[in-house]
Amino acid sequence: MRIRTSTIEELPVLQDIERAAGLCFRDIGMEEIADDEPLSLEELSRYQRAGRAWVAVDDADRVVAYLITDPVDGNIHIEQVSVHPDSARRGVGRALIDHIAARAAADGVPALTLTTFVDVAWNAPYYAARCGFRTLTEAELTPGLREIQRSEAAHGLSRWPRVCMRRDLSLERGGGRAGVSAGRSSEPG
Question: Are 188 and 88 in contact (CB under 8 A)?
Answer without folding.
Answer: yes
